[in-house]
Amino acid sequence: MKNFYNRLKFNHIKVYQQLQQWLGTSLPCVLCDAPATAPNHAHLALCAHCIDVLPWYHAPRCPQCALPTVSGTLCGICLQHAPAFDHTLTPFRYAYPLDRLLHQFKYHQQLSLGHLLANSLLSPLSTLTENARPEVVMAMPMHRNRVQARGFNHALELAKQVQQQWQIPLDIAGCTRVLDTPTQAGMDMKTRTRNLRGAFATQRSWQGQHVMVVDDVMTTGASMHAVAKVLKQAGASRVTALVLARTLKSDEP
Predict the structure, then answer these.
(1) Cβ(67)–Cβ(75) under 8 Å?
(2) What distance in Å separates the CA atoms of residue 105 and residue 110, rounded to the nearest whole number?
(3) 5: part of which helix (H) or strand (E)?
(4) Best exposed site among 3, 36, 178, 228 by fewest CB in 10 Å?
(5) Are 106 and 141 spatial neighbours (Cβ–Cβ below 8 Å)?
(6) In this predicted structure, what is the pLDDT of residue 40?
């Protein structure tokens, strides 16, 4: 673990990318020091082994909330208390070492790590049919106080990658977070839902639009539900969640 954090203290991934173009050689993986993959690989700066050991989410899952189900059908929770969002796409479980990479990205301004991981979001998008493609993409809104404190909106960085690769229009200010609610770590679904009441707002019409909301991690789905509810009230016909990782009970510490 110590070696892992030492490898990430310096924002060297962008430098590695530039050096690879200049030297035409493979430089060390950011996790284990082995030779990284070829420069045109979507997971540049990770070696083949570390790409394989990332917590890829291949199991059958509920199409609405992405919790595991036996045959990939709707789970009991969504059948009884359906969230406002309609579909969830995610390439990873929220587990080691992805959790450490995300921590460095969000709290230590390792933006290049976010760009590296964002490429993984493109894989779930490729499974959508043309008719299921969203008409607009947006990032999970962050309160301006949090943006000022952190220096950037991590979800927006991920959404920009989606927009650039798939040419889906990116809406930056159509939905905002108007309440700076307390951190939700450790809260259950009911408490999180209550905590987020009135936290999001929109001043525009989303009439008939299919909106994709991008975020890093879905834990209970409360934030995504709150945003989707506001969008649906403003006329959105469908809301798809695109998240980098889904927290599962088996992966919780």
Answers:
(1) yes
(2) 4
(3) helix 2-8
(4) 3
(5) no
(6) 45
